[in-house]
């Protein structure tokens, strides 16, 4: 691995080395410009370089480089099909470079106290989730208070979390609590067993996604257990808190590797979390845990990816008896962190089995993890959300029908800006089976 990829390398947080690597990569991107429409990092970069006579990134000041870093919200879309990516002589990996630059800024004292405080709130997703599900009525009063209201502004002042964008609400019962108390079903024919890793979003907020996932899997003879792993750590990673992320990754790798070794693959229903497990744990854990991290990555699946893998194999029968409510058309958002896993559009393929016609939106919603809720990201997120929502509305106007997306945060953006209710693809399948919704 190069210093760009390896957080355990001596030069990973070195400012001069990181800035020199940024200059090298920015020059390659400038000669390519394929990603100019993906986010504001690239236009910011290219506009600056166009102002230099020689267009060379070596002219950029640290502040100019930091403007590019600060505009990146880690959608990872620029890694999809990059012709200069890892494995080529240029070895460009913009998302990883942006993560390294953020960590370097933090380590070298270039990030403010407010960012550090915000990271403490957003990074401790399990602690905050446990407290907020226990006090859901009160917590949701704050979360659901109108954008810009005094309550949201006070909350923002204390935490650094956005006062203007919609936040996901908390459930009154955790997913794992529901899972432990639910009536057991007798499976006619057990076909497989999995461990569900709900991660914080499904454990504390989108618990209905987890419930429908269990019901769909059990209907298909897949026995489910729930992992003891903690929040995947994405907010720490995206905030540049590499030591805290590495500690969490090491804990989760040990837990998940034991679960894999006991014979159950890991199923993660949120794309950012599965992306982190598959693409970041191995490089952050100590050398002694790397083999376990690779074992976990190789046996971790998105919810639809796992079902479609079994369906496409020879020894498994997926129930395609969709006698429930099947939408004629579905506007489907394929989240960036699923696209960059390059496992195909398996949620689309799964929903297609119902007979629904599906139109796919591939744009980033501008929010890729809880870290994206920091108030400092308001402008970036709003610009990106505007483009995303206009794509959703354009496609939905052509075909109406249901709206689906795997990412709960992107679905929250849709709810914030439209009257549409976007659900997880597994919930489309649950209703198509005739499984009633939880509420
Ligand atoms: S990230 Fe890759 S595809 Fe995008 S502009 Fe840079 S070199 Fe081109
Ligand atoms: S990861 Fe996304 S936001 Fe960051 S530079 Fe790449 S395309 Fe832009």
Give the topology, please.
Elements: H1 15-32, H2 41-50, H3 62-70, H4 94-107, H5 113-123, H6 125-134, H7 136-143, H8 150-159, H9 175-181, E1 192-196, H10 199-205, H11 207-219, E2 222-226, H12 234-239, H13 242-261, E3 266-268, H14 271-279, H15 281-284, H16 290-298, E4 300-302, H17 303-312, E5 329-333, H18 336-339, H19 346-352, E6 357-361, H20 378-399, E7 402-405, H21 408-417, E8 422-423, H22 425-433
Parallel strand pairs: 1-2, 1-3, 3-4, 5-6, 5-7, 7-8
Helix pairs in contact: 1-4, 2-3, 6-7, 6-10, 10-11, 11-22, 13-16, 17-19, 19-22
Domain Cysteine-rich: 194-277
Keywords: 4Fe-4S, Iron, Iron-sulfur, Metal-binding, Repeat
InterPro entries: Cys_rich_dom
CATH architecture type of the domain at 329-433: 3-Layer(aba) Sandwich
| Average of the residue pLDDT scores | 95
Please give the largest β-sheet. 4 strands, parallel
Helix content: 40-55%
| Ligands and ions found | iron/sulfur cluster
Shape: globular
The percentage of residues in β strands lies in 5-15%
Radius of gyration, taken over Cα atoms and rounded to an integer in Å: 22 Å
CATH class of the domain at 329-433: Alpha Beta
User: What would the CATH topology of the domain at 329-433 be?
Assistant: Rossmann fold
List the uncertain runs: none
Q: What count of helical segments does DSSP give?
A: 22
Q: Could you tell me how far the N terminus lies from the C terminus, measured between alpha carbons in angstroms?
A: 49 Å
Helix-strand pattern, N to C? HHHHHHHHHEHHEHHEHHHEHEHHEHEHEH
Number of strands: 8
Structural class, please?
A: alpha/beta
Physical arrangement of strands within the biggest beta sheet: 2-1-3-4
Keywords: 4Fe-4S, Iron, Iron-sulfur, Metal-binding, Repeat
InterPro entries: Cys_rich_dom
Protein name: Cysteine-rich domain-containing protein
GO molecular function: 4 iron, 4 sulfur cluster binding; metal ion binding; oxidoreductase activity
